[in-house]
Automatic annotation (TrEMBL):
One of its GO terms (biological process) is transmembrane transport. This is Permease. Its main location: membrane. The keyword Membrane applies.
């Protein structure tokens, strides 16, 4: 029950976005919110997360193993995506979206509910690793469908979140202190980023119609996110030397539903944002139903954290 209650604020803010768009319709310009979130609040979230706790062995190994699972599955997707999808935009969404989980808005509070507040450093660093994947690979997949390779790479280099992340790592590595008042401002911006992302998702969700959902795309993405990726992740984690506690947190982060950030990127690059929204919706519903079984799987294969 505590686990389910911990994710209720997530659905609350999504509902606010949905109701607001339904009530005010054309008065709500969702793309403006996307730009505000992606170019201003998201970099604050990145900086806050990377300077929150010192970098140590656990922080390094967690994202490394997370990437091993992500790139193992991505290799399979690259091999078989052409056979599954003929539409270029569907293939782009399949590659860009399937592996990007909601490690921040759901992963962080869920980690606190399941493993206590001491899980925050690990969930945060995995969330940052996830955001690096978004900024580098998801952005590339989305951008290359509309631009040349040269322009795609250029669009990645111009992303503020990427440069902010490098700057934050340097701050953390050299242990440069951050004043408490500045830290408080960063925390406010980070939480604002999470809330705005959820509201944007709710706004796009209000335009989704069940009759127009691209079920083939959504179900293939959900299979990758909720079955294939967790299975590969568990296999890799069992071969590692991570403690049961950290391993459990890592597997949980691989199991969370699709990230709302997927909608932001799809909107920015005009790549079927409503189809992406529908995929995120279906993934979130499936996760809510699978959560109990996920907890059992973690306990059975990884152990009691």
């Amino acid at each position: 029950m505590e686990t389910l209650i911990s994710v209720l604020p997530v659905y609350f803010f999504i509902l606010i976005g949905l109701i607001t768009k339904k009530a005010f319709k054309e008065k709500i310009d969702e793309k403006s919110y996307v730009i505000l979130s992606f170019y201003f609040l998201q970099p604050i979230l990145v900086f806050w997360g990377l300077t929150k706790s010192p970098i140590d062995y656990g922080f390094i190994m967690s994202p490394f193993i997370f990437y091993c699972a992500i790139f193992s599955v991505l290799t399979l997707l690259l091999l078989f995506s052409n056979a599954i999808f003929k539409n270029s935009k569907d293939k782009t969404i399949f590659l860009a979206v399937s592996l990007v989980g909601n490690t921040g808005n759901i992963g962080v509070p869920l980690g606190i509910a399941l493993f206590g507040e001491q899980s925050v450093p690990y969930t945060s660093i995995i969330n940052i690793a996830n955001m690096f994947f978004i900024y580098l690979f998801s952005v590339y997949f989305f951008a290359k469908d509309s631009f040349s390779v040269k322009k795609s790479i250029s669009s990645i280099i111009k992303l503020p979140g990427l440069w902010v992340a490098f700057f934050a790592i340097l701050i953390n590595y050299f242990q440069i202190p951050i004043h408490n008042d500045i830290s408080r401002v960063l925390q406010m911006g980070a939480y604002a980023a999470m809330v705005l992302q959820l509201i944007v998702f709710g706004v796009y969700l209000s335009e989704v119609k069940l009759k127009t959902i691209n079920w083939k795309l959504s179900l293939h993405i959900s299979f990758i996110k909720h079955i294939l990726l967790p299975v590969v992740g568990i296999i890799i984690v069992l071969q590692s030397d991570l403690s049961v506690y950290v391993a459990s947190i890592l597997v949980m982060q691989l199991m969370v539903p699709l990230a709302v950030n997927n909608v932001n990127l799809a909107a920015l690059y005009n790549c079927k944002p409503y189809d992406v929204t529908a995929s995120v919706l279906i993934s979130t519903i499936l996760f809510s139903g699978l959560l109990y079984f996920y907890l059992y799987i973690i306990k059975y294969f990884i152990g009691d954290a």
